[in-house]
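Good morning,

Both structures are done.
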Amino acid sequence: MIKVGRYTAASLLVFVGATLLMDQTSDTSYVEKIVQWWPFIIIFFGIEYLIFQFKNKNDRNVRIDIKSVVLSFAIVLILFGLTSGFPFLNQLELVYSDNENDLKFEIEAQMIPFYENTNKLYVENLNGKINIKPTNEKDFKFETTIYVSEIDQEKAERIVNESKLEWIDEGSTLQVYAKGKEYYRFGFKYKPKVNLIIHVPQSREIDIQLKMKNGSVIVTDVPILDSLDIDTTNGDIHITNINGRVAADTTNGNIEVYSIDGKTVLDTTNGDIIADSIFGDFIADTTNGKIEGKIIEGKVEAESTNGSITLVEVNDEVTVDTTNGKIKVKSQVVDGSWYLDTINESIEVVLPNNGDFTFRAQSNAGGFLSDFPFHIDKKIMGGIVGNGEHKITAYTNNGSIIVKKWDQDF
């Protein structure tokens, strides 16, 4: 029996190997061009089959070597992946980010005019960090650093040259887009990391909106008109000294905010939330992380799954809800209703000696301890301090409830 296809497969291997070697040594892209000629593989198989049929003088069976056929088409698929990035991976948006140990390129700073009618800055960076700080300049200044994965210098420079910072001024909004040139390595799609330092004129207030992926954010001392909105993934958010509404959302990152004069809304998954000196309503939500808030001069809503919640010096209504996390609240002033709820952990509160509140607590499988003369009856503890104006409710299913006076350790 004669098997047909081995010569075609072997010739294809030699041809493809030589072409790849040429591309690697001569900075060409012949492999990308030859992929489109894949139907010739079928033609060569047919030619090889006919040749063996004509030369078969001993009436031996001539059959196609299935393994050789599969090998040939596998080579074509691999070539297609190496040059086009495996489309099925692209559909899953598997973009592999580069890190800061790669080749680094500092780009010349770019100035963007701050027109009189501009009152909002929108920045989109889908792979990289953003650091926003004030400047005495009258226009925006963008400093760009690009990191390209470890390929040769010439190819990296070409990728950097094809990466760009685009900006559009439409009406009252300045839109800026960091566009890193996509490239492929071993069949996987990469994007260069583009880090931005943005200098915002401090002479005028402006709203800021950041849309990001795979990058952390730092915003410090920037004059905000009404709001600062940040949305990122795989990165931390750090905000300091902002006068205006703040909204920050991240996945796989921590959020830290300090000295915010305005409503603050924070949301993260797989990260902690830390807040200090918030002069406005405070809303925080995290999964698989803790929440810590200190000196909050507005209503508080804090929710965590698999994390503790700690609040110190809260001066308005407080709503705290956590699963599998401890709750600790300490304040010299009670000036609103408190509702504290956890499923599988304890609750500890520190209250003023001379406050006006009505306290009620329930624990289904835990004990009670109080510095105040509260009444305890099986699963319930309660009492009134002062005129009882504000209601404090604490509930846990599988934990203890501890109440201390302010002068006790927290």
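Second structure follows.
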Amino acid sequence: AAAARFAAVSEAYRVLGSAALRRKYDRGLLSAEELRDAPRPSGRPPAAASPPPRAPTARPGPVPPPFDFDAFYRAHYGEQLQREQLLRARREQLRLRREEAAAQGRLRVLSDLSVGLLFFLG
């Protein structure tokens, strides 16, 4: 089954690689002898097949601005972006409050120890 499939693909490759064989195949005139005797096509397309490169041409009038992806993104995901920014700001405020509370707690412990030490020594 694999050998037959490979043979069919090879035959199609040979026909499609030759303009003359392709024309005969399209007209239904391609014989098995012609196909067997046909040379294998090279891996490269013929040089004449590729169009020559064109020089860029300037457009008359104003050039339209490129697509504004930022506006598109804001239009489709604006609410989600606002929620994320709000959550980020709240998390930052909470972090700052915790840091302040921790600093005040350390200061209070230090002052309590100092007062206790003064009573003990005094």
